[in-house]
Amino acid sequence: MFSKSNDAIALQxxxxxxxxxxxxxxxxxYFIYNNxxxxxxxxxxxxxxAKNIMPKALKQAQFISKxxxxxxxxxxxxxxxxxxxxxxxxxxxxxxxxxxxWIARTLLILFKKVFLLNSKKYFCVNYFIxxxxxxxxxxxxxxxxxLRTLIPITGKAVFSKFLKQNTWAHSYLPNINNQQVxxxxxxxxxxxxxxIEYICNKKIGNRLENHFKNLTLKRWESKFKNIDxxxxxxxxxxxxxxxxxHPQNFQKKVMDAFNAKKAEIExxxxxxxx
Length: 274
Known about the structure:
Oligomer: single chain
Largest sheet: 5 strands, mixed
Shape: elongated
Distance between the termini: 16 Å
Number of helices: 10
Order of helices and strands: HEEHEEHEHEHHHHHEH
Strand content: 5-15%
Structural class: alpha+beta
Number of strands: 7
Number of domains: 1
């Protein structure tokens, strides 16, 4: 599924070849590298945990959709890839109405801080984009994997537009289609959400939008001043149409590890890994 190859037979032959060269090993229906059998146990446990936690994630996604200016909510992160452990979070990818991303984000963060005591375990809202700018600018294997594994829960029409704006991801992972989950999509917003939108659709909304964006950005610049400027612009991207809060810059860590592993395989086994 995560292969670029559209030829299943050719892919199977490559796996058999790698197995014959002792580069990979088949174990309980999985192919593993470095004979690390523990990774299979970890994966199967993660799959089971993901199945158990999914109903809670679905309810949280529907709950988030009731907040002002939320157009679409998708499950992202490890859970969207069918894996979860008790130390992890439930991550959400959120599309907002145009010109109100920062108001929407601020209200969700305030709810988390006040009512969830700032716990993000089941309420990790760390990636927002605006409906009027749906193209993901960072185009690489990591972002393609994140995009192609998103599980849309609400606002599926908007999510379809998002996919059409990001067809570039297909070239990285042509065999993956976003998982569809059947849920009640007739989401009724909170009464107070309608009132907030009524107020913020006026000029005061524009002022609040700019204020919340500048306030958040200033706080992050102070809190994460040890992060390199270029990394900051990716991991903590803060524009009128995008808000990311990934201070650990997991994207860079994963891509660095991926490239290091690729180089290791090529050097150790004298092959062109990809």
